[in-house]
Specification:
alpha/beta, about 50% helix
Length: about 230
């Protein structure tokens, strides 16, 4: 299934299929923005648990997509409410039988509040294990890749990000190395003014359609409008 499984009838059809035709060696995994009503999440989780308890499935894994925190996150994944996401995620924390992950997409719009998310992740990991995965914007659009800003812009942010990432296991060390590699890649690039201009065109178009204001949410970007000659 593509899209958001918690909003698709096909997810319910799959669960009914496994109930009627058990697959005891099957691991079921879903990727979700986790922006549904809590009651919907609870119903789905308990139905899957029943399937596992009755040997209709072997394992269940949820990877919840979230990139940063606060207003920037709600802007980037328009329609998402971080309070609803947190309520749903903390319910999943209380169900230790499933595998639980967070997956981030790193872009210029998410880096500044990534530390806030990682601070929450530290708290959540005190309850149970939570996997942490991330990547840059790939393969495109290029104007949403942090490399376009060149060196120095995100240095303090990545220093804090790295400091908040645990590094006691090999898996954690690999994650730190990967995050450090993303940071180093940004630092090795020169500022790409045409792509930054394209980013502002994109943001202004989003604001026009949504009646939002990126300048209020990303005030650190305002200085680059004048630098790139895109001030309204």
């Amino acid at each position: 299934m593509g899209g958001e499984p918690l909003y698709q009838d096909e997810l319910d059809q799959c669960l009914e299929l496994f109930k009627a035709h058990p697959a005891p060696e099957l691991k079921l995994q879903i990727f979700t923005n986790l922006n549904a009503r809590l009651e919907r999440v609870q119903d789905m989780v308990q139905r899957v648990k029943q399937l596992i308890d009755t040997n209709c499935l072997r394992e269940f894994e949820i990877t919840a997509s979230l990139d940063c925190w606060g207003a920037p996150q709600e802007y980037v994944r328009y329609g998402l409410k971080v309070e609803q996401w947190q309520q749903n995620f903390e319910y999943l924390l209380s169900e230790p039988w499933m595998v639980l992950n967070i997956n981030q997409t790193i872009s210029p719009l998410t880096i500044k509040t990534m530390p806030e998310l990682l601070e929450l992740l530290i708290k959540w990991r005190k309850v149970r294990k939570v996997g942490h995965f991330f990547s840059g914007v790939t393969p495109e659009p290029n104007f949403l890749k942090p490399e376009i800003f060149g060196p120095g812009v995100f240095t303090e942010d990545f220093e804090k990000i790295i400091s908040l990432m645990p590094n006691t296991t090999q898996e954690e060390n690999n994650a730190v190395s990967y995050m450090t590699g993303i940071w180093q890649s940004i630092e090795k690039n020169n500022m790409n003014i045409p792509e930054i201009q394209n980013m502002f065109v994109f943001l202004n178009a989003k604001d026009f359609r949504r009646n939002t204001n990126w300048r209020e949410i990303f005030p650190w970007l305002i200085q680059y409008e004048a630098l790139c000659g895109t001030t309204a």
